[in-house]
Amino acid sequence: MDNKINEIRRRISTLRAEMTLVEASIRDQVNRDLDCSEGSYRLMAMRAEVAELIVRWKAAGGGERLPTVRERLSRSYADRPTAAAKADKARADKPKAKPGHSNARV
How many other C-beta atoms lie within 10 A of the C-beta of residue 102? Predict the structure, then answer.
C-alpha cells in the first residue's frame, strides 16, 4: 500500500512541477498579447488530474498534508536535515578568529 501512496505522491509532484512551467508559459504569452487558450486548457486538465490523484491518494490511506510547489521549492538547502548537520560540523571545525585580528586593510 505504501508503494501505491508513494507512486501517487510522485505523480502529483511531477504534475505540480509541470503546472508551474505551463503557468509561466501562459504568463509569458499573456504579457506578449498572444493566445494562451491551449496552455490554459492543458493547465485545467492537469488540475483535474491532480484533484483526482489526491482523491486516490486519500483513499489509499494518505493522510499527511501535501506541500505546495511553492513550499517545496522555497525550502532552502539549510532546511534539509543532512545539510544542517554538515553545516554545523563545518562551523565547529572552523578556527575562531582572535578579537582585533582581521585581514581587513586599514
Answer: 9
Residue 74 has pLDDT above 60, yes or no: yes
Mean pLDDT score of the chain: 77
More confidently predicted of 56 and 106: 56
CB 56 within 8 A of CB 8: yes
pTM of the model: 0.56
Dihedral of the alpha carbons of 83, 75, 17, 29, in degrees to the nearest 10: -130
What are the phi and psi torsion angles at 13 (to 5°)? -60, -45
- Is residue 94 predicted with pLDDT exceeding 60? no
At residue 90, the pLDDT reads 57
Question: Which three cell numbers, joined as nine digits, stand for 29?
Answer: 504569452
